[in-house]
Amino acid sequence: MARRDADVHTGYNDVKQVEMFVETAEKMVGQATMQLDPEMLNHAKEAIENARGQLARARQQATGVDGDFLAQCEQKLARAEHQLREAQQ
């Protein structure tokens, strides 16, 4: 039974992971821009890249009902990237 359940792909885990990656990126960008520490800024940039990668994977597996949520995540990442670029200038 566990093996059969392991083969089922609902998309929920993908969406939840995207949410977690985006939240982590937002928090890291916030901390990095407050500290203006080059290493923290670099880690924040990596967190955004990781979140974008997770978002791309989720889009490939999307069921169609996740579109609005994924679009919101895209907007959050765009704002975080903008904030990070402003801090780096």
What does this molecule look like?
This protein is elongated. It has helices spanning 2-6, 12-35, 38-61, 67-88. Helices cover 84% and strands 0% of the residues. Helix 3 (38-61) runs antiparallel to helix 4. The model has no long low-confidence stretch (mean pLDDT 87). The chain is built from 4 helices and no strands. The protein has 89 residues and is mostly helical. This is Cytosolic protein. It holds the Pfam family DUF2564.
Radius of gyration over alpha carbons? 15 Å
What composes the largest sheet?
A: none
Give the SSE string.
HHHH
Helix count? 4
Query: What's the number of extended β-strand segments?
Result: 0
N→C terminal distance = 55 Å
Judged by helices, strands and strand pairing, the structural class is mainly alpha
Work out the oligomeric state of the chains in this entry. Answer: single chain
Number of domains: 1
So what's the overall shape?
elongated
InterPro entries: Uncharacterised_YpzA
Pfam family, one: DUF2564
Protein name: Cytosolic protein
Search tags:
89 residues; 0% strand
How is the secondary structure organized here?
Elements: H1 2-6, H2 12-35, H3 38-61, H4 67-88
Short summary:
This protein has 89 residues and is mainly α.
